Amino acid sequence: MLVFGDAALREDPGAKIARLGDMLDEAAATTGIRRHSLLVGALIEAGELAQGLADHDFAQVPVDRRFPPAEAAMALAVDVARLVHASWQASFAPAALEGQPARSALAELRSRTLPDAITVKQPEGFAHYGLYPEAYLEAARELPRDARLRVLGIRSIGTTLAAAVAAAIGSAANPVMVRPQGHPFRRRIAIGPDLAEEIRGDPDARWAVADEGPGLSGSSFAAAATLLREHGVRPDRIHFLPGHAGEPGPEADAAVRDIWQAAPRHVRSFDDVVLAAPDPGRRLQSWVADLTGPAQGGLLDISGGAWRSHTGRPEHDWPPVHAQQEKRKFLLRSETGRWLLKFAGLDRAGRDKGRIARLLHRAGFAPEPLGWRHGFLVERWHGDARPLDANAIGREALVARLGEYLGFRAAMLPLEPEQGGACTARLFEMARTNAAEALGEAAACGLERWRPALQRLEGARRPVRTDGRLHAWEWIEVDGRILKTDGLDHHVAHDLVGGQDIAWDIAGASVEFGLAEDERRILARLVESRAGHPVDRELVRFCEPCYLAFQLGYYSFAEAAAAPCERGRIRLQRDRYRALLATALDADQR
Fold it and tell me: Residue 296 above 80 pLDDT?
């Protein structure tokens, strides 16, 4: 099944350097958690810059080596990480911003000849999964204090994490950056003679390997350990700093598991370093206190589907959840009310979602956002909300509300073409693959009618920040208003779809609410009216089997990863999409 994909963006290195300087300037004029958040944002920008420059060089060689522009960017990342470390250690207390080394590193980068553009990979952990560099600052404190301790970061996100580890241990040497290649479950790393000599030259060095994960196979960490072993480093001197304390997933082979068992691991979670922080000033409720007022009691964790017990739905009517893909969520009570704290992403990822939340609320489509604080969006919690009853409000009113909402998104949340998600050819490939796996090759042939139209449909696309999750359980009724929840970030989710033409959401709404053909026509006209431009009807029809195939793949993966108590709900959704896709493909063949 094809479901997941990595978001990548072409960026101007000079623009990133300018943005870094602006963030450091703003941090110098700010205090508290907002100052700290800006420093972390600058660290992420610097890590992305180092990653993009290293990947640019790798594309020319292709081996990992000490590429001077990337090394200069990594030196900057380590300098900024030292500022983050100092801020974290002081619990964000106001202090003079000792940023001269970072300023010097910025000046050094500006003096270099840099590529016109680099490809920056979105660090999924920072954007989606609540992975904080501060957890690696704390984990690094557990490393042996060894003068020969070196750091290796696995690109993409491991570049930034390695900078944090190097800052925490006071390393004088730049971390090594590598990118594992090959089959996702059998990664290998190729390095140039300079790095090979550097590693072999000190076989008694101790190495700390930083990355998120492990994932299904743990092969990226294993590839790094294999590289070091092959160049003379003893297994007992290789330490892992992963994103969680679990073992590699079911695709890990025996050799990978042996490597994981041999490596000392140093892990500190978000819960360890934030929720249970010894200093109350570092805790999440303190981050948002200027927005909500002082918390009354502790935070209530409603992640992983626990939020369903607070919606008024009986348990037998709970919607399915893919717990591993859910954002962290907490309820906070203060004298000003009850508030939802939801992880929205660090740095620009979170700020952009905060902007979308404010826009949707002002237009009357979403709950009220108070603000964004270091990765978490604060929204009003409507405890008196009722799940949307589509039958009770009437079909005409339902279609009208869907048309208003989707038309607003099409008009007000555009994307540049290069920021959009999968092209029509990629959507077709996904649908063809998923349909063949679930229904057989004969059924998947029903999609072939679309192949000649792909080029024209690609030209018709107008990418927007699509909602992507128009399921009935994502809507609530509050004081006579119909509000959409969870509509901020699925256009940048960790999947291959990304931002699409509003046709994707029209198709999704039609599926999720079982719209009849005349209702679909009305919905498309309403969206056109609100958006101010035509909706390509053929693109809508193409998107429907693609949407069904994507959801089928998503829930197939969710079932495989789910706890036993959740599998039944997920299986019902998977089977529903499978049946609808079979019907759609059968109709296409007739």
Answer: yes
